[in-house]
Specification:
Layout (H helix, E strand, L loop, with lengths): L3 E5 L3 H13 L5 E5 L2 H8 L4 E7 L6 H4 L2 E8 L12 E3 L4 H19 L9 E6 L5 H15 L4 E6 L16 H9 L6 H5 L4 E3 L2 E3 L7 H4 L3 H13 L5 E6 L4 H9 L2 E6 L3 H16 L9 E5 L12 H5 L2 H12 L1
């Protein structure tokens, strides 16, 4: 059954414009608007609502709450400094800001409530970036975010010398390093240790942040095998996207176990030569590199050298446009 976002607000112009924005985002939700109590009561009496955005001047009955999974109040006034509660959102801000807050909160609550998906739906995707570069990282973030609008996605950027890229509010200074510590402890429950270390941007969960690049080099193929087995057996994620910015034992094992490998390339001869050498070495290890699993692609240069960018800049970039057709077919 398709999940539903319902906007129930007496301001019909506001509600319709917000609905149009959500529909343009192409999220995996039906979007409906109600402005009258009678029509809303008739609908909710027959249909469950996944997310309800409720105008502050309106209300729902106690028996209707049973049919609402997540309720958010559209406040007429800005929230005061220090005011808590994810249920109240200032109505008169950008539609993007409202939707970002809702989807981030919704994603976190889905994890806690134990969202289920079929095990055979799990997919591991690797974006290979040898050497790493901001244009390749831009493509990877874009791809992961676009996929997260359709399914539950975990994004894991792995590079030895990470540099600031996105100005995200969630802190992840050393979360990946902390997780590696637990990963190498065979007595740990990998998923239970990983989930509290994840950050979110809208519906996309990500695990990043290194204390030292050598932490990545300490990860063995046995560690990766155990991690991926647990991920594929978990009900938390449908797709995991790895950004591989370093060539290591762990990276080769991830490539070996990936359902799809996207080899990101810049328009220069050196990248092409490196990919040829990568292909040769993988074949020596008997890792298939045929077109059914491997796909080479040229990534555009967004021209962001030397500075971190906002998510909105990423969404307006050539990298985003480049990633869209891949997200549609993966």
């Amino acid at each position: 059954m398709e999940k539903t976002i319902v906007i129930y607000d007496s301001d019909s112009m506001y509600a319709i414009r917000f609905m149009e924005y959500v529909k343009r985002r192409g999220l995996d939700f039906d979007v409906l608007v109600f402005t009258e109590e009678e029509s809303f009561a008739e609908y909710i009496g027959l249909h469950p609502i996944e997310i309800l955005l409720l105008g502050e001047m309106l209300s729902v009955k106690e028996e209707q709450l049973e049919n609402i999974s997540h309720l958010y109040i559209l406040s007429e006034q800005p929230l005061e400094a220090g005011e808590q509660g994810n249920q109240r959102i200032f109505k008169y801000q950008s539609a993007e800001a409202i939707l970002t807050k809702i989807l981030t909160d919704y994603t976190k609550k889905e994890k806690v409530s134990g969202y289920n998906s079929e095990k055979n739906d799990r997919k591991v995707i690797s974006v290979v970036s040898f050497p790493p570069g901001r244009n390749k990282l831009s493509f990877s973030w874009s791809l992961a975010y676009l996929l997260s609008e359709r399914r539950k996605v975990l994004f894991i950027p792995m590079e030895l010398l990470p540099i600031p890229f996105l100005t995200l509010t969630a802190s992840s200074d050393s979360n990946l390093s902390e997780f590696i510590y637990y990963l190498k402890d065979n007595n740990s429950n990998v998923i239970d240790q990983m989930n509290p270390l994840l950050c979110c941007v809208d519906r996309l969960s990500y695990l990043s942040g290194l204390s030292h690049g050598l932490d990545l080099l300490s990860v063995t193929k046995e560690d990766i095998r155990r991690w991926l087995v647990d991920i594929r057996n978990s009900t938390d994620y449908e797709t995991v996207v790895f950004y591989l910015g370093c060539y290591s034992e762990a990276a080769v094992e991830i490539i070996s176990q990936s359902d799809k490998v996207l080899v990101a390339m810049e328009e220069n001869g050196e990248d092409a030569e490196r990919i040829k050498e990568l292909d040769r070495q993988l074949q020596l290890l008997h890792i298939p590199t045929g077109p059914d699993r491997f796909q080479k692609l040229l990534v555009p240069d967004p021209g962001w050298e030397g500075r971190a960018i906002t998510m909105q800049e990423l969404k307006n970039s050539e990298s985003w446009l480049c990633a869209m057709p891949y997200a549609d077919h993966l």
